[in-house]
Amino acid sequence: MAKATILHTKLQRTVGVFTCPSQHKHHTKYIMCTPYSLTFELTKENRSKSRFAITLSFSSYPCRCRRNHRRLCIRRLQSTRSSEVMGKKRKEREAQSDDDDSSKSRTKRTDSDKLVVKPQLLPSMIKNKDKRSAVYAKIKHEKKVEKRKNAKAREALESRALELGEELPPKKIPRTIENTREADETVCKPDDEELFAGNDADEFSSILTSERAPKVLMTTCRFNSTRGPALIKDLLTIIPNAEYYKRGTYDLKNIVEYANNKEFTSIIVVHTSRREPDALLIIGLPNGPTAHFKLSNLVLHKDLKNHGNPTSHKPELVLNNFTTRLGHRVGRLIQSLFPQDPEFHGRRVVTFHNQRDFIFFRHHRYVFETKENKQIDANDKSKDTEDGKKQLKGKIIARLQECGPRFTLKLTSLQHGTFDTKGGEYEWVHKPEMDTSRRRFFL
């Protein structure tokens, strides 16, 4: 292999080293040839007088001239020339940026009223990980300090308004998905006479007006696991007047007919898939409707930490955020499962909270505790400093204790009448093409 060494003509120092794949003798007008060396002359663009001489020294005798190797050597020479030019441009850019930084630091304020604003340095613009994390932490700290400063200023304004007897400054409402939902024509209004007329004539009016007492039949799917009956066991403690029947091999239509004969008002079917309850079917009797829910995030009573034990009192029912016509109908279906005369001294509350079309179920009981505050009487302390007299003052604190179970429901379909997969008419069915926006809700 032949090595090519680049030498500076004036300074006589090595600029770079090339390796030639073979030993050849070149004949071009750009090359000065000797038996054992080749010399190229280059001129820098910024300095016309300085020249570079490139000498290719061969370690052995020269070979015969070949056109392909001559092209290869000339191509390497051109790449060397372009790298020199690129290095010169890079140095010019760096020098220009240094000049700009120095000029900006010297003239931070050009005029008395006009400020020179530097572009904000974002963490995503920094390639070094340590510097990027440091800049991000600094920006986060600045935001935190500014937030604390605004909170103190708002508290000062509120305290000053209370002292002067003025109106408090309006509180800022956070922007959420719920309060920026898409406009829906089916949202119920408090002065909707048609809605109240429909409530008096629907399937649940006899139960909600206490003309009939609710009576619920609970069962599972045909092939169930231990988690299905365990969920039903927890639901039996929540819903009064509920009875559990083993499914066996009976069809659901036969179960509906049997429940009508026994004067049940509702049927709840717990569906199981892969040994885990995944669906809930609620059928109103005798004329429907039938609601199919997807069940998820199930936690049984025994799996809850620090859970309470519910009593046999009738619970208080809380329904939240069922605002549309469809949500109002689903809420009345859920309401028909519970008696309308809750026993408040039992301190039980059952909550169905709708948020973004997900219905969260929780079961709690009220707990009233007396917190004792130890205070020392000042008069007794002055008389006897060693044994201070302690007075116990009780303060009653109310809190909630979860009894379980907890789970999440999502409505998939609402059908007219009782369960019928072939000839049933659907009031509403959820389809994937409905999910076109995160701010579109149906309940």
TrEMBL record:
Biased composition (Basic and acidic residues): 92-116
Stretch list, region Disordered: 81-116
Pfam families noted in UniProt: Brix (PF04427)
GO (cellular component) term, any one: nucleolus
GO-annotated biological processes: maturation of 5.8S rRNA; maturation of LSU-rRNA
Signal peptide residues on this chain, from the entry's feature table: none
Residue intervals of the Brix domain: 214-420
An MF annotation (GO) of this entry: rRNA primary transcript binding
InterPro entries per the UniProt record, alphabetical: Brix, IMP4/RPF1
Gene3D superfamilies for the chain: Probable brix-domain ribosomal biogenesis protein
Name the UniProt record assigns to this protein: Brix domain-containing protein
Originating organism: Lactuca virosa
